[in-house]
Design a protein that fits this description.
229 residues; alpha+beta; Beta-Lactamase; Arc Repressor Mutant, subunit A; 2 domains; five-stranded antiparallel β-sheet; 9 helices; 5 strands; 17% strand; elongated
């Protein structure tokens, strides 16, 4: 994928993530984007590790769930190790992978997967989530695939952190949707991240003595940007 098309893909992803009405939709958007943006990605999913139990929150198909079930059954695998070891785990070839001596060859043989990645997207006290990408037999992820996947995971991490800030403020679903729309507009117009867009809204809110949701609704309705202090 050329650089211009990749940049356009990430711009569309940022807007779609910000406008998604709930976390489930947001995760599905990220999974679909992985298939579109990571050249050699054939299967993708968001896996949540809840105290060693893996749950597939969103996936392109059931391969991710089957791979996760094997990790839980065998008590080994990348989604169990990603936070403990590092933010990104990559296996160029599961057929010769030594870190997971039982899981890797079974996934290679039973699911016809050659290469995989697991990238941390969020963490809290009880659980953490990872973006899991798989490449079919005969195809292996390269350095460009890893770089794009890391950028995608980073973008998802930022928007999820921003949504948690909104949750902590106790805003209702309607207000959250409006704020997401305003974030998308700001990200497009001012080349901001989701986190920067939310900070912009809070600064305008404080400066104008209006609620964040009110500022966001005005931007979403008029598509005009107030001056940030």
């Amino acid at each position: 994928m050329d650089a211009r098309k990749l940049l356009g893909g990430f711009s569309e992803l940022a807007q779609a993530l910000a406008a998604a009405p709930d976390e489930g939709t947001r995760l599905k958007v990220a999974v679909d984007a992985a298939l579109d943006l990571v050249t050699r990605c054939d299967h993708a999913g968001i896996t949540v590790n809840e105290n060693g139990r893996l749950v597939t929150r969103a996936s392109s198909d059931d391969l991710v769930s089957r791979a996760n079930a094997l990790q839980t059954e065998l008590a080994e695998g990348p989604c169990l190790d990603v936070r403990r070891d590092q933010d990104t785990l990559v296996s160029p070839s599961l057929a010769v992978e030594r870190r997971w001596p039982t899981w890797a060859p079974r996934v290679h043989a039973e699911l016809a997967v050659d290469s995989m990645m697991s990238l941390l997207v969020y963490t809290d006290e009880q659980s953490f989530g990872a973006l899991s990408l798989y490449c079919e037999d005969g195809c292996r992820f390269d350095a460009d695939d890893v770089a794009v996947a890391q950028a995608l995971a980073g973008q998802l991490s930022v928007i999820m952190a921003a949504e948690r800030q909104i949750d902590q403020l106790g805003l209702g679903l309607h207000n959250r949707n409006v704020i997401g729309q305003a974030q998308g507009i700001l990200m497009e117009r001012l080349d901001m991240t989701a986190d920067q867009a939310f900070d912009y809204l809070r600064r305008v809110s404080s400066h104008s003595n209006r609620k964040v949701a009110t500022v966001a609704a005005e931007i979403a309705r008029t598509r005009r940007l107030p001056d940030a202090p």
